[in-house]
Structures are given as structure tokens and as C-alpha cells.
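Exercise 7. Given the components listed, write out the predicted structure of the assembled complex. Treat all entries as one system.
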Amino acid sequence: MNESAAREKEIVLVDLLDRILYKGVILWGDITISVADVDLIYLGLKVLLTSVEKAEEMRRQTAVKVLNCLAPSSNGGSRS
Amino acid sequence: MIYLYAITDWSATPLPALTGLEEATRPESYPYRDIAAVISHTTTTTPSPVETNLWQHEGVLEALMTDRTILPVRFGTVLTDEVVLKDVLETHYADFAADLKRVCGRVELSLRVLWEDEGSTTTLTGAGGRCEEHPRPSPPYLLPTQSWREMGAEASGRDYLLSRLEAERQRQSLLREAKTLAAEIHTPLASLSIESTYQVLHTPCLLLKAAYLVEREQLKAFRQEVGGLSVAYPALRFLCTGPWPPYNFVTA
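Answer.
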């Protein structure tokens, strides 16, 4: 498979994930749970799933919130 | 246990030969009034969300789409037994019937439009032939602010606040620009669709993320319009996939 075809396959997979895990008919209230207005798919006792893009966005937004909180800090102490 | 793939309209045509998810039985139709559920019997309550299973679920839907109207059900929906299934169909019948009518003969197309992400400036050519210099579309969520510490010892609190103000102005300007550009792309496509949904800057590089419910007969015209837009806006990347089952256009 050449690079272009592989890239195209990735794009289609992202579109699939975005739909099959995040859209479509939802029958049970307890199949999805919502954290900070973000729907997560509940598939089992310990499995939480969301679309790749959504997860990436959540991660980024969390990082920005953390950075915004730290920005005015003058001592910049690190946290482990 | 029953794995649910889709809700369909009633059809006299038997289901095509389909392969179920994992160890599930061959998908079959479970009729209720003038609609039906497409199901497999399975022993698992939590089908594994691995790529092969996701494509298997999607494959069943796409095969069904060839000769009937369907409402795609979200991956991983498992019901206890046929009593529960019947109850679901009974409870949601009105919504299912209305949605099936709404999406009949129509499919979903996905469009993502990406900003140029290289170079300090990029030229975006408008549909009307105008050319404008645009700053690099840096992530609007990530304000180009420096922390107070990064600004150096001589920086005052006023300097810091002014830099924040400037960053916010840049962010607002970029957002306005993105909304205008997204509308220029979305509007002609929306006019070729029955319904549409879109988000601007869903992620920093994703100028427009949209889904369109399109009549099958309009597919070619829609794709031609996307092709025309990609020529008119050479600095943007257009990624159009589909036809998909109408995932974004179910209300139940």
C-alpha cells in the first residue's frame, strides 16, 4: 500500500470511529456517560471509549487549562 | 444476548448473507409492525471495540443500505433477550418510524477541511478569486501568550496583561476568519443536502468538520461541488468520505 492509500485509509478510519462510537441510535441511558459535556461510550465495567479525535481534543483542552493556570505563576515549581 | 446493528424499514426482500460480529450468529431481521431490527445472537455482553469488529459492524450496515433504509445503531449495543428488544422497538417506534422516513433514499457524507499547517503565512484564495494574506492558523485554543517568567525580569504586570490582550485579539481575529471561511465552504454544500451539521475549529487544525444528509441522486453533484471548492481554495485540504449510514441524522 502506498503512502497516499494508507493515509486515505486512516482518514476513513477516523470518520468511522467518529460515527460508530459517537453517533447513531443510542438505546440505553447507561451506555453513554458524560463527563464535562463529553459523551463517553460505556462498553463494560472497566472500558471507557470515545472517538480518537474527541479524546485528543479533551487531552488538549485539559492541557490548555493547566497551562493557563500555571502561566501567571512566578515561581513555576514543578509537580511530580 | 442480542447484538443490535440497525433499525430498518420493513422489506419483503430477505437479508443478504451477512457475517455477524465475533462469534455472533448470522444477522437476521426481527420485525415489529412496519419496521425491523437487525440482530445477531451472541454470548458476549461487551464486544471488543477492535478495528476488525468496528468494520464488521459497519460492513453489516453498508450491506443493508444497498436495498433498504436503515438507522445505524451505535457499536456495542447488546440487549438481554427478545423481550427487551421488543420493548425497545415498542417504546421507540414513533422515533424510529419518523427517522426512517426522514433518511429514506438518503446517505451521509463526511467532510473535513484542514487549514494549511506549514509556513508562517499562507495565501487562501477565496471563491471570488480574491487573495489575502493570512497569518499561520496557529491553534486558537493555544493562545500565543508568554508566561510572566518567560517575558524576562524587566517585564511588568502591565506588559504581561498587554500581551494577553494582544493574544486574545489575534485569537478573535482568527476565529472570525475561520467562521467566514467555513461558511463560504459549507453554504453551497448545505444547499445540495437535505440536512447538515457542522463545527468550526473542532480541533485547531480542523477548520470545518461537517456531515451532510444527501439524496443518493445528488451524490455526484455534491462530490463535484467539493472538487470545485478544493480548486477554489488550494491552501486548504478537503477530505470527503462516504456514503455512510446516516449516523449523524438519527434522533432516537
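Discussion: The interface with chain A takes residues 4, 6-7, 45-47, 49, 51, 54-55, 57-58, 71-77, 79, 88, 92, 96, 110, 112, 139, 141-142, 145, 147-149, 160, 202-204, 239, 241-242, 244-245, 247-248, 250, 252 of chain B (CB under 8 Å). DSSP finds five helices and eleven strands in chain B.
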